[in-house]
## 1
Amino acid sequence: MGSPRIIMKLIVAGIHDEPGDVRVIELKHQRKPLLPTFEPGSHVDVHLPDGKVRQYSLCGDPEDLSRYTIAVKRESSGRGGSAWIYDQVTPGAELPVSAPRNHFPLKESGGPVLLLAGGIGITPILAMARVLCRQGKPFELHYFARSRSLAPLLRTLEESIGAKSLRLHFDDQVDTLQDIEGLLSTRPSGAQLYYCGPLGFMAAVARVSEHWPDGTVHFEAFQPPVQDDTAPEPFTIVLRNGTVVPVPADRSALSAIRAAGVLLMASCENGVCGTCECGYLEGQPIHRDAVLSNDARSHRFIPCVSRATGVLKLDL
Ligand code: FES
């Protein structure tokens, strides 16, 4: 997996627009003909001039390393990063981009693969479908969008994987929630589920797939699920060397740990990229991230958003 510390200065080699306020950006290296390899599900960090860092899935073909392709949806109510890229980035511009990292890998499995994408969540799923298609593995990709005219990358998808494995679900034609329930209420033998999309879609798929066994459901979120509105409580972190780090209610664990002198890398600071992940040894975390699997939650912690009750001993 690449390190977010490795920053490449890539040049915007092409831009085109897709439905749903989405702009597809192709990035190349000015001198090197090939970029670092990536697996389907990988993302890169894009560093913006104001210091913000945003993560974008690589939606191009992992076999074509002459370029990276990202798709940026303009979110006017977002945190500003995507709107800046959408509005300001032009062909020829230079963008600092990290090496690819993958928190959403395709697992080796003999069973069928079910890929579910909602809107712009098609980006990591498209790269997965390309690879599964090439490998001749059994899979179905279910693409959910408000309508055909608002579905980004649909033509690319149809050209890349063909109609055989692709199922479309548009809100203006069918009851998409009912479709999700129909798809996931029974798990085909040996099946693995991968999904990505906006908050409501993520919540619906998570709810309907609750009965799938641990280790068979994989997802990537753009933002953490909506939290209860309980006010954050102060808690205490203890480091491996015994240092006690108080975390006040108005401060993140990440910021408190860093203030105590621990060098901990971070990127999104929003609980979605996994860069700040660390282990915990004792205590009761309150997980608020959108990265860790249920299995991982028994021993891993995301300090940029998660908290704890009482004392949490970290493996740091
Ligand atoms: S910095 Fe991205 S999950 Fe913490």
Note: The chain has six helices and 16 strands.
## 2
Amino acid sequence: MNLLSRSIPTQILIIEALFRRLNPNHRIHKDLREEYNRRKKGVAGEKQIDYYLEFLPPEQFYIFRGLRLICDNKAFQIDTLVISQKFVLLIEAKDISGKLYFDESYKQLVCINEDGDQQVMEDPLEQVKRQSRQFVKWMGLKLDVPIEYLVVLGDSRTYIDPRSGPKYKDYILHAHALEEKIQELACKNQKDIFQEETLRKLTSRILTCHNPLSIDPQKTYQYSSADIIKGIQCPECKKFGMERANQVWECPHCKATSRDAHKQAILDYLLLIKPTITNKECRDFLGIKSRKIAHRLLNSMNLQFTGTNKSRIYYKPKHG
Ligand SMILES: [Zn+2]
């Protein structure tokens, strides 16, 4: 059963909004492009894993994706957590391409990309082991729960050097081998560990304690509100400055019209400037004078809000 779905990482949404609204000559553009490509690749790898997890019998497995929990004031993330009555499985997704050599003695991963460049990184198996220790501690159960962990490569073309330490064979695999591997783990762990009630309590506690990362975009990406282009972007020619006429937005450059071009603009404000918006801030950002129209536009977005009339504050949606 799918209990927590993966949402588009906030960083991707922020970078896409920056691509729309940051002056193209801004110094951070190159770094943004690199980070964006890397994150998109990561998402594609996770999608591969999600695809193969769909084959598992939903009545036997509870699946949480993109989980973030806090234990002893420290946050830890689990790419994918699978729980059954018999065991717990943590999956760390890796989106590295090229050739990989896992060095057991030094607990490092040596990665050679298509251009022959070598990069050394932390052994992902150590990473997922650390997460499982944190998760066991977080659960705080007196039960002896079998904990399994895997590192799954999202890109099926990634080559694993067979000279890698032999222990990795059991833990590192490509996404297409995942379903079979989980069945194998189910055969290995046949005893019921969790009673239905304990399992129900645990899964609902996980959902309650899930604490998605919230980042300060201006600090993270090194821009200021003044760098952000205001106004409504034309969905056709991508220029800014659409104007309101007869309940639609019209582009003064290419004459295209749109009914809801303000939605992207308001979301961009919430992503890039700050996570709340008032009627006045909305008018200023969209370049409109009417309080009434701003009220209608904000209300049309079904955002959560607090306060009434002039003191009303609207909040950024949880995802995006
Ligand atoms: Zn236009």
Note: The radius of gyration is 24 Å.
## 3
Amino acid sequence: MPAKIGVIYYSTYGHVGQLAEAVQAGLEKTGAEVKMFQIQETLSEEVLGKMYAGGSLKPKYPIITPNDLKELDGFLFGFPTRYGRAPAQVSAFFDQTGGLWASGALIGKFAGVFTSTGGQHGGQETTAYTTIPFFVHHGISFVPLGYANAGLSVLDRVEGGAPWGAATIAGGDGSRQPTETELSICTYQGEEFGKHVGTFVRGKELA
Ligand SMILES: Cc1cc2nc3c(=O)[nH]c(=O)nc-3n(C[C@H](O)[C@H](O)[C@H](O)COP(=O)(O)O)c2cc1C
């Protein structure tokens, strides 16, 4: 059976949405069954309007529910940074997963993270790092990206991404768009994650 993997993202201005589709392309190369989800917006239309946002109120993909997690072998979570950590929308989603925690429903599953920051040093690593407690308490293994992708060692230009996970840099006004290198790192992360989870799923079938 192919591994079932969810790409689960929240995006206020669309950058992470673009990364999510590049991640999806990488996962699909591995033969995984990929499901795309978005995380429920929690801000009001009025607040989003003041932030010059609103796209998250019209999601392109189904909104993830806690029970969807049970059906998946692995999850790649994407979200922009907020003060160097995950947005409240992500916390609000995990706050609904207490029932899954109580029954140990997610033990043995896998997760990775990709993100977007406004600035080059705005917290790509801290955003992934401070998300790990959600995974640890659920018994989910965090799968890092590592440094094997050459795009992570580029020094002659500004590129997002870290061994913690793929990333883009949106710019202070959100005008910078994901570069080819950043998107290729996303695809690489999807492919590596898909192989990792797929190997586990096949191994479990043999056990
Ligand atoms: C409340 C708030 C806090 C933010 N905090 C940070 C931050 O700590 N570091 C940073 O680089 N960018 C920060 N940003 C910028 C966002 O990360 C940026 O808008 C986002 O990466 C764009 O991704 P999206 O288009 O997928 O929403 C913040 C934005 C908001 C609205």
Note: DSSP finds eight helices and six strands in the chain.
## 4
Amino acid sequence: MLSNTTFLITGIADKHSLAMYVAKEIIKQGGKVVCTGLGVSSHHENLSEKAKAFLNKNFQDFKEAVTEELGDSSVEILDVTLDDNIDSFARSLSEKNIKLNGFLHAIAMDKTIRNKEVKPLLDVTKAEFCDTMDVSAYSLIRLTHYLLKHKVLQSGASICSLSYIAAAKVTFHPYRNISIAKAALERITVELADELGRSHDIRVNVLRFSPYMGSKAGNATLNEEDVQTSNKMSPLGNAKPMDLAHEIIHLFRPDLSITGEIRHVDGGYHITG
Ligand SMILES: NC(=O)c1ccc[n+]([C@@H]2O[C@H](COP(=O)([O-])OP(=O)(O)OC[C@H]3O[C@@H](n4cnc5c(N)ncnc54)[C@H](O)[C@@H]3O)[C@@H](O)[C@H]2O)c1
């Protein structure tokens, strides 16, 4: 179904990342992937030793997971908070003559959630608010901008990103700060869908997924109780990573006339409550 296609997959931290399920399915369907992971790039300045060690370990884990799960797929460092990094990454794809049929944005970060404890919104600082917004929402615009600037993203391409129901309503888990960034990500999706559909025939959709504790981000945020609550409330129980992967593969199909969608892959949770 995806033969002769290449997709960029962001947001793989390890083999349990949601993005990994999507990457594996693309390869299974005959496509190719380019994967990006967070690591130390030549564009980082004044990194502390602690930050360097964190980023190096992150990139090592990412690379090992890609080699193990996806064979010889190419890997690149990408920190979406650094414009220069996104710019040079997109340029390097262009120099290698890589043309993308789309990409998956599977990136989120919120430092106001620590050890599953969520900071009340009233105490969130401007820096915390803006950092979360930058990494988790604005990055979708910037990444798209540079991929188009270097003519890497082809006309007719498909872009997907990941959200959750908390973007629209208070749920089983109080996400607070990151919920606002997810709401922005969803609105960005709709605006980009209109702009890019008209200008480049490019589709942009976002998928709200069930709570999933298997990934690093999910495990740092959620409690077992939240997952159970949502599982009970959802008519079909919580959706699984493979449900998400199948839906994204569908949206990645060339020549589909679907854009600006905020899709639910959540076992029907969104119709309850
Ligand atoms: N786990 C869940 O319950 C769940 C549910 C719905 C949606 N999502 C969303 O799915 C996406 C993937 O999350 P996941 O659960 O697979 O967790 P994950 O921890 O595997 O993935 C999060 C990724 O974001 C990356 N990232 C953070 N800051 C970055 C930066 N500055 N530049 C580049 N990459 C950066 C991390 O390196 C990591 O790979 C996120 O957008 C998340 O909000 C997760």
Note: The chain has a mean pLDDT of 96.
